[in-house]
Structures are given as structure tokens and as C-alpha cells.
Amino acid sequence: MNLPNKLTMFRVILIPFFVFFLLTDIGLGAAAPVLALVIFIVASLTDLLDGKIARKYNLVTNFGKFMDPLADKLLVCSALICLIELEKVPSWIVIIIIAREFIISGFRLIAAEHQIVIAASMWGKFKTTFQMAAIILLILNCAWSLPVGGVDVIYVLGQIVLYAALVLTIVSLVDYLMKNKGVLKE
Description:
mainly alpha, two-stranded antiparallel sheet, 7 helices
């Protein structure tokens, strides 16, 4: 197993630890969500690293093509589902985000059957960036608040970024479908 694939698997292994520290109060108080936040950030950074290393050193594998996006989806979906439990994210937003992931994954499977590779688009990359930024802000808000004039600035900023991520989720879905509608005609 090459280094990018090890980084991908490391990201998957971090997910249960992330969920544990985010949802379990084991007497650590505000330190538990901070540990979860650190784990989430480390896992997110492995996503950047594995792809860069794989492309730079020509270490792209079928395993990596399959597992890297799966690991990303597991990390983001786990975080969003936990944030529902913590009442930081409305469930309907998470349903839309997860539905988009299922639709695109299914679409890619159909394309793969016809030897068509659907690459990640810029809209998809923006979506992922905004999702991760929203998750970071909302996890940070589990540990700290920043009240200004009776408003929790961290929470409000997290919500703004979350809604931007939701819009980008929908835009990226439409973009994928429009650019690749020929796949469905095959």
C-alpha cells in the first residue's frame, strides 16, 4: 500500500475517534470537542495530502480512486450527523447533502460501467471546502462561544458558511448532471 492510500486509510481510522470525542462527555468538558476538532482538521489535511502526493509521484491507484472519495464522504457525513445530534445543524440540510453524495456516487458508477471517468469539478471542490469550514466552525462552537451583542458570532458564522455549502452542494449536483447527462442516455 502506497503512502497516499495509507493516508486515506488513516483518515477512515480517525473517524470513530472523532465521533467519540465529539459526542461523548468523558469528563473532559470543552476539551472533548477541541480534541474532535483537532482530529477532524488532521483528517481533512490528509485529504489534501494524499491527492497531492498521488498526483505528484504518479501513485494514483484504483484503490485510491475508490477509497479517497469514500473516506471524504464518511468524514463529512459523520460530522454532519453528529452536529444534528448536537443541535448545530438542521437535519434537512444534512439529508440534502447526503442525498447529493448518493446521487453523484451512483452517477459515477453508471459512468464507470461505460468506461467514463467523471472528474471532480471546481464546484464540487468549493462545496467540500465550505462543508469542512462550516463543520470546523460548528465544532468550535461546541467548545466556545463568542457573544457579541447577544449573538454568538461563531455559531452565526458557522451557519452562514453551512448555508453557502448547501447552495454549493446543489449547484455542484446540477453542474455534474448537466455536464454528464449523456451518461444517462447510454
